[in-house]
Amino acid sequence: MKQFYPNIPKIEYEGAKSKNMLAFKHYNKDEKVMGKTMAEHLKFAFAYWHASNYDGTDMFGTGTIDRTYGENEARSRAKAKADASFELMEKLGFEYFCFHDVDLCEPSPTLSELKENLAYMTNYLKEHMDRTGIKLGWGTANVFGAPRYKHGAATSPYLNSYASAACQVKNALDATIKLDGIGYTFWGGREGYETLLNTDMAFELDNLARFYKMAVEYGRSKGFKGTFYIEPKPKEPTMHQYDFDASTAISFIQKYGLQNDFKLNLEGNHASLAGHTFEHEIRVARINGLLGSLDANHAETTVGWDTDEFPKDVRSVALSMYEVLKNGGLEYGVINFDSKLRRPSSDELDNAIGFISGMDTFALGLKLAAKIIEDGRIDSFIEERYSSYKEGLGAKVVAGTTTLEELEQYALNLEEQPLPSGRQEYLNAIINDLMCEGL
Ligand code: XLS
Ligand code: NI
Ligand code: NI
C-alpha cells in the first residue's frame, strides 16, 4: 500500500530523557496508573476533520498545508485521505477516530450526493477498520457549514433547513451504527441566534428537543446502543449558542427528559470561551452523572477564539484528569483530539508531532492527577472543610431533619468565631510540588 508519511516511523515510547521528536516521552500505553493501563484511561481518538482535512485556511488567507493526498479526482482523493488517516493512526497507536459526514467524503453539494458518498466511504473505512482494529469513537453530521444552515439547522425558523438537518443526521447515524460507534455527537454550530430581534427562542428550543427525540427514536429503532452527546459551546460561529456550557446543556437535557440517552461531550477550548476552566465543565457534568466524552484541545486565551491548539498545559490537563478519575473513568466516551495544527506548522511531520505532544501532555496530566489523589492532601483538606456537617446539627441538615427555626435557635446562641482559612495558596503549591518533584 502507498505510504503517505514515509518519514514518520511507528511512534514508540522512549522515556522522558529521549530527545527524539518522533517518540513518546511520557505516553507509555501499557504502563499502569491506579490499576489501569494508560491506554485504558486515555481512549485517544483521531479527529478526522482537523487531522486529515484542515489545510491551514483562516479568514485572512488560503491554505498552507497540502491535503490533496496526491490525487486530483474527488473520489480518489477521499479514498487516499482515508488511507493516509489510517496510516497515521496506526503509526501513532490510535484506537479510535471521530468524524463528521462531510469529512469522509468528496465535496457533495446536494443531500442525495452526500448520502451516496457517505454510504460508499463508510464501506471503504470499514475495510480499514477491520484490517487495523481501529474503532469508531463517535460520528456526527456537519449541519453548520452549508448555506442551507445559515439561520440554524434544528433551530432554524425554516422547515427546509430543519428537514435537511434531519436528513443529514439520519444518514450520519446510519454511518455511526454501521461502523459500530460508541457515541453520536450533536454540536450546535448554528443552533443559536445572531440577534433576539428576529428570534423566537422558546420555539427554537422546543424544536431542538423534538429533533433530538426523533434522533434517539430513530437510532434506537436501528439498534444503536451508544450514547448521544451534546457538545456545549457558548458562541462562534453564532453570537449566542443555545448549548452554552455544561450547566445550560444539562438543564436543557433535564427539562426535555433526555437524560436516559444523552450525556455531554466537553471541549477544553469551549470551556474557556464560556469563561470556565475545563475542569469546571467536567466537574459539573460528573456531579450530574452526565460525563460522556472529551474533546481535547487547548485555548490560546490571549486570542479569544476557538483556536483548537493541541493540548500542552499539564496542570490544566491534570486537573481535568483528576475529575475523570473521580468519575471512575470515561465509560461512555473517548478523548478526541479536536486539535489542529497552527497555520505555519505545515510539513508532513507536524500532525504526528502535534499528536505526540498532545498524548504526552495527557499522560503527564493523568500521572499528576493520580499523584494528587494518592498524595491525599487535597482530598483530605476538602473532607475536613465540610466536617461540621458530619455530626450534631450539621448531620441533621444533611439528613433533611432540621428546620429553619432550629437553625435560628442555634445561630442566636453562637459565639462569633473566626472561620478557618481556605488555604488556596497552599493547595496551589501542592500541585506545583507534586508536578515538579525531582526537578
Ligand atoms: C467546533 C466543535 C466541533 C465538534 C464537532 O468548535 O468543537 O469540532 O467537536 O462538530
Ligand atoms: Ni469539539
Ligand atoms: Ni471546538
Structure notes:
The protein has 439 residues and is of the alpha/beta class. The protein is 46% helix and 10% strand. The chain has two domains: 32-375, Divalent-metal-dependent TIM barrel enzymes (TIM Barrel), CATH 3.20.20.150; 388-436, no CATH class. Helix 11 (314-326) links the parallel strand 11 and strand 12 (335-337). The chain is built from 16 helices and twelve strands.
Summarize, please:
This protein is α/β, with parallel strands linked by helices and 439 residues long. The chain contains 16 helices and 12 strands.
| Total beta strand runs | 12
Shape: globular
Number of helices: 16
CATH fold name of the largest domain:
TIM Barrel
The strands making up the biggest β-sheet line up spatially as 3-4-5-6-8-10-11-12
SSE succession = EEHEHHEHHEHEEHEEHEHHEHEHHHHH
Secondary-structure topology with pairs:
Elements lengths: L31 E2 L2 E2 H4 L2 E4 H6 L20 H19 L3 E5 H4 L6 H22 L2 E6 L18 H20 L4 E4 L5 E2 L7 H21 L5 E4 L9 E2 L4 H10 L6 E6 H6 L4 H10 L3 E5 L18 H13 L8 E3 L12 H26 L1 H9 L6 H8 L4 H9 L11 H13 L3
Parallel strand pairs: 3-4, 3-12, 4-5, 5-6, 6-8, 8-10, 10-11, 11-12
Antiparallel strand pairs: 1-2, 7-9
